[in-house]
Design a protein that fits this description.
about 240 residues; Aminoglycoside 3'-phosphotransferase, Chain: A, domain 2; three-stranded antiparallel beta sheet; 8 helices; transferase; AGP_Transferase; Aminoglycoside phosphotransferase family protein; Aminoglycoside_PTrfase
């Protein structure tokens, strides 16, 4: 009998690995609908859907290993990071998915709520929150929507040597800002941004990338704390805010 590995588990969803099969259990089947459709549309290697019996989605494991983990040095080569940037470009050049993403007003409103919570509950110093809230303003500008992954963190990008082997976890895919994907990919790994941009192949507004680093970190902290993750770990979200 194969050993069952708990990859992630909280009150919204859980992912288990049994051999070469991942079992994703999600309380919100709309997220799973998005994941399956986005993987079918994306011009990138994605996990094979083995079967779906709500609330469970069974996916085949991808070859290779993740680019790395937040808070730890990445073992991947500069060429592998460049390959991730090139993959992001292929995705952003693809036809748009039929469902919309969040509007600028929705993002700004969520940011305001989370900043108030961080200050009111003494989670972070007010000056740190305020400073990063100002930095985040640069992200809240009009953009041309592209097909975005929506959660393109380095643990979701798999490589084998210098080659990209696939991208996982597409439940947040939507129409969105291309620079958001690049920012999430390099969150906590600023030293890899040059490699990603080299693979992406076009000029990138670094102020907007930094703005998304601040915005994403500010809005994620409450969710991470409430779901058993530690944004105060070295190199993670709070350190990103302090570095801005």
């Amino acid at each position: 009998m194969e050993e069952v590995e708990v990859v992630v588990a909280h009150d919204e969803r859980a992912t288990l690995r049994v051999g070469d099969v991942f079992l994703k259990i999600d309380a919100d089947q709309a997220r799973t609908d998005v994941e399956v459709e986005a993987m079918a549309m994306a011009p990138l290697p994605t996990p094979e859907v083995l079967w779906r019996r709500p609330p469970v989605l069974a996916l085949a494991a991808l070859p290779g290993t993740a680019l790395g983990r937040l808070g730890e040095p990445s073992p991947a080569s500069p060429a592998a990071w460049a390959a991730a940037g090139a993959a992001a470009r292929r995705l952003h050049d693809a036809p748009l998915p039929p469902w919309p993403g969040r509007s600028i007003d929705e993002i700004a409103a969520g940011l305001d709520v989370e900043c108030e919570w961080l200050i009111t509950n003494d989670v972070l110093p007010a000056d740190l929150v305020t400073r990063n809230r100002r930095v985040a303003e640069a992200a809240l500008r009009p953009w041309t929507p592209v097909f975005t992954h929506g959660d393109l963190q380095l643990t979701h990008v798999f490589v084998d040597g210098d080659e990209l082997t696939g991208v996982i976890d597409w439940s947040e895919a939507s129409r969105g800002d291309a620079l958001f994907d690049l920012a999430i990919l390099t969150l906590g790994h600023e030293e890899r941004l040059g490699d990603v941009i080299a693979g992406y192949g076009s000029d990138v507004d670094l102020d907007v990338i930094r703005a998304w680093w601040s915005l994403r970190s500010l809005v994620a902290i409450r969710w991470l704390v409430e779901h058993g993750f530690d944004p105060f770990s070295p190199g993670c979200e709070v350190d990103v805010l302090r570095s801005q």
